[in-house]
From TrEMBL:
<dbReference type="InterPro" id="IPR036868">
    <property type="entry name" value="TusA-like_sf"/>
</dbReference>
<dbReference type="Pfam" id="PF01206">
    <property type="entry name" value="TusA"/>
</dbReference>
<protein>
    <submittedName>
        <fullName>Sulfurtransferase TusA family protein</fullName>
    </submittedName>
</protein>
<dbReference type="InterPro" id="IPR001455">
    <property type="entry name" value="TusA-like"/>
</dbReference>
<feature type="domain" description="UPF0033">
    <location>
        <begin position="7"/>
        <end position="31"/>
    </location>
</feature>
<comment type="similarity">
    <text>Belongs to the sulfur carrier protein TusA family.</text>
</comment>
Length: 75
């Protein structure tokens, strides 16, 4: 999946992946996609809830070699 911006949040513990995601998504225009890479296992539930509460759309999430990858479309 293509993204307009990539955020590397690997190695960061909660709440830093969400803090950095919020900052990064603010730099995008509505409809653009942010790709996030994280290793914190709590990031999946945190990002899912954060996207929903913020009016954004979680397009896809996968896990590869311990790295969680998310694609969030800015609402």
């Amino acid at each position: 999946m293509n993204a307009d911006k990539l955020l590397d949040a690997k190695g960061l513990a909660c709440p830093m992946p969400i803090v950095k995601t919020k900052k990064a998504i603010n730099e995008l225009n509505t409809g653009e996609v942010l790709e996030i890479h994280a290793t914190d296992k709590g990031a999946k539930s945190d990002l899912t809830a954060w996207a929903k509460s913020g009016g954004h759309e979680l397009l896809q999430d996968t896990e590869e070699d311990g790295v969680l990858k998310f694609w969030v479309k800015k609402g």
